[in-house]
Amino acid sequence: MLGLAKRVGARFLLTSTSEVYGDPLQHPQKETYWGNVNPIGERSCYDEGKRTAETLAMDFHRGAGVEVRIARIFNTYGPRMCLDDGRVVSNFVAQAIRKQPMTVYGDGQQTRSFQYVSDLVDGLVALMEGEHIGPFNLGNPGEFSMLELSEVVKETIDPTATIEFKPNTADDPHMRKPDISKAKELLNWEPKISLREGLPLMVGDFRKRILNEDEGKDA
């Protein structure tokens, strides 16, 4: 894709990830932080794959003059996500709607920051229309532990929903929160939609699809 961008003179958007920071020793994470990544762990094919993609993008920019833009995307949620994609918000929402226990890995104290999809789209558009390469953190600095997230899901869907604890996954980052001061300053961007505002919009979509799924099984 970088070769194609070079040939046709296109501007190239790389949607990288907050996972380039690994299990961070800096909190919140700034774009200048190089990260703390296990290169041979269970998650490393994703983490290191994205880090390598950033390297290639910058090599093509420096060596071949390709116009690149790099966004480091933090956890994002919204309607039309896959019901069973394994992401924590999708998991909790689908499980609560189906009256299943919400699965929490480890002690549930690990934190994530959740941005609504329309905020991310606005950030990507601002990045592509601007003159700054990046990388830019695109995320919502509102930070929630997994237990706090489960409480918000309960409030939104079903106050009687329960939690099931399971052993934690390997190399699971303990903290994740973006420092978005660079995006604020250079892209004039910051997220507008809080988790409590965005989650009901996702829940409405998931409810419809899960209901249709159940009706299909009964037919």
Automatic annotation (TrEMBL):
Pfam families: GDP_Man_Dehyd. Pathway: Nucleotide-sugar biosynthesis; UDP-alpha-D-xylose biosynthesis; UDP-alpha-D-xylose from UDP-alpha-D-glucuronate: step 1/1. Its EC number is 4.1.1.35. Residues 3-200 form the NAD(P)-binding domain. Its cofactor is NAD(+). The keyword Lyase applies. It comes from the Eukaryota. The keyword Metal-binding does not apply. Keywords: Decarboxylase, Lyase, NAD. PANTHER family: UDP-GLUCURONIC ACID DECARBOXYLASE 1 (PTHR43078:SF22), UDP-GLUCURONIC ACID DECARBOXYLASE-RELATED (PTHR43078). Catalyzes the NAD-dependent decarboxylation of UDP-glucuronic acid to UDP-xylose. Necessary for the biosynthesis of the core tetrasaccharide in glycosaminoglycan biosynthesis. Belongs to the NAD(P)-dependent epimerase/dehydratase family. UDP-glucuronic acid decarboxylase subfamily. This is UDP-glucuronate decarboxylase.
